[in-house]
Amino acid sequence: MNLKEKIFEKIKDGKFLSTFCNQCKKHIWPPSNNCKECFGITELKDVDNKGILLEISYSHIVDQKGYFGIGDFSGLRIIGKMDSNIEIGEPISISKVRANKDNKIIVEFDKLY
Asked: Which of 58, 63, 70, 77 is most buried, taking the most CB atoms under 10 A from its CB?
C-alpha cells in the first residue's frame, strides 16, 4: 500500500496523517517518502488536531459557500471549513476529516474553548 492509500485509509477512521521527518522533526506535505530538506526517510504520523487559526476567508462558490480558514497544526498548514465565530489567532481543533467522491480531503475546524 502506498502513502496516499494509507492516508486515505486512516481518513475513513476520521484521522489525519502526514509524513514526518524524525531528523528535522517536521511534518512533510504533500506526503513523500523522503524529507524535502534533509532527504531523510519519513514515516506516517498523526497530525496533532489542536492548532491556531492563521487566516479566514469566505467562499461564494456555489455548493461551497461558507467560511474557510488556514490553521497551523504543529507546523503543518491546513485549509478547513469553519464557523464565522472563530477569529484569527484563536486556538482551533480538527473536528472532522473525510474524503469526498473526488478523493479530495475535506477538513473542518472547531473553536477550542
From this structure: 70
- Helix or strand or coil: residue 22? coil
Cell triple for 18: 502526514
Quick one: 42 and 14 in the same domain? yes
33 plus 58 within the same structural domain: no
Q: Which residues make Cβ contacts (< 8 Å) with residue 111, sequence separation at least 6?
A: 83, 85, 86, 90, 91, 92
How many C-beta atoms lie closer than 10 Å to residue 24's C-beta?
15
pTM of the model: 0.87
Cα–Cα–Cα angle for 112, 45, 35, rounded to 5 degrees: 120
The residue range of the domain holding 93 is 48-113
Q: Which of 1-5, 57-61, 64-68, 105-109 has the lowest mean pLDDT?
A: 1-5
Residue type, 37: E
Q: What's the chain's average pLDDT?
A: 94
Do 76 and 33 fall into the same domain? no
